[in-house]
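Dear Dr. L.,

I hope this message finds you well. Following up on our conversation about the binding site, I have prepared a predicted three-dimensional model of the protein together with glycyl-adenosine-5'-phosphate. For your records, I am including the exact sequence and ligand specification that went into the calculation, followed by the structure tokens. Please feel free to forward this to your student if that is useful.
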Amino acid sequence: MEKVVSLCKRRGFVFQGSEIYGGLANTWDLGPLGTELKNNIFQEWWKFFVHKRRDVVGIDAAIFMNPRVWEASGHVSNFNDAQIDCKQCKKRHRADHLIEDALHDIKVEGLSPEDLTKIIQENDIPCPDCGSKNFTDVRTFNLLFQTHIGPTAQDNEPVYLRGEIAQGMFVNFKNVLNTTRKKLPFGIASAGKAFRNEITPGNFIFRTLEFDLMEFEYFVPEDQWKKKYDYWLEEMNKWLDVVGISRKNTRVREHTQDELSHYSKRTVDIEYNTPFGWKELYGLAYRTDFDLRNHMEKSGQDLTYFDQQSGEKFIPHVIEPTFGLSRTLLMVLLDAYTEEEIEDAKGNKETRTVLRFKPAVAPFKAAVLPLMKKPELLKKSEEVFDMLNDTIVLDYDSTGSIGKRYRRHDEIGTPYAITIDFDTLEDNAVTVRDRDTTKQERISLDTLADYMAEKLSQ
Ligand code: GAP
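The resulting structure of the complex is given below.
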């Protein structure tokens, strides 16, 4: 983990948020490479779950919503964490995490704050930061961030930053239905920032206050939910292959009844084997008709679906596959990180660090590298760059030794390096080096664009 964190900082994937002011806990900024990686993951996701399908459409809903939305969705009363403060060092902890980390094989979901306090006291659990056992009682806190619209906060009722993307899709269910004329079963997808005022244990970007989320609501007649649930679990696993997360590092875990969110009748998580244990990467929930039914009641609007074939009117049920985008970025990095021992030209052993990204998500697909900083090589390299630049995201790098530049691009996961040397001026061919095998091939400039397109599509 430390190695990935340090690489992220050194190479410009992730920076600490507001770093020059000493940071702000659990906020992170994406650097140039992290931004490319995130955008690539998102585009692949949209392609896989929206563009390639006839039964899913996408929307982009507002972050601010009428506060009634969050009352109807149950988030105002149910979206809570149980927290406890250490009186000695003032550190705040999630009570469930504190107990589970100290006592291991214990499940505390669904227990009241009083029960959690009792477990902590009876088992003499200390503060992991200072060792003190002098805690407050456990209290529950709502995870929705509040703010106010307008200049005088006191006059207005609070509005919330969205805690999930889903509600934008539920409140637009009828709009989408009427404008697209979709028939059940169909889905609405959306992606963007979500915000949760939660305690974060500091595992880099794993759990943060604001994060990118991609999810879709798949509307079905009630009697189809089981079939569609199994289907979407399969599709979610296939998505892991698209983005390059090895299935051997993931597992599916069923939520216990106590653990289920207030809106869910069944949830499974796809978990990833991180250096800090098995952790939730994605979730698949059966939300029944909970959300549409509650929005119907609170808004007074008709959110039913009319099935022309059967002549029946009903509230659709919902399967929700949800994908943390920020979390995907972390898992893609963890999964891609490899170190291997190699020998340099003089036979000295050294360690090569490689991010084995799938080409689809790699920030750069290839690097154009003039062998030396000679005017004729630079000119030819710029021509090669311009020739490929329309279709492939490239880096152009002319500084340092060629070996160092190969290492740098291995480390940031660039699948191919294209080197322009003095022979290029004679034979109109370049050397293409494969990041994973380090094998080099001589390719004519006449066929380079096709060659790269073929390689990058694998
Ligand atoms: N609409 C359903 C929903 O929001 P969730 O399990 O609460 O479900 C969805 O969150 C996904 O968002 C999780 O599977 C995880 O990938 C990601 N996630 C949740 N909380 C997060 C946080 N604080 N920081 C980063 N990612 C988070």
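In brief: The first strand starts at residue 14 and ends at 16.

With kind regards,
A. P.
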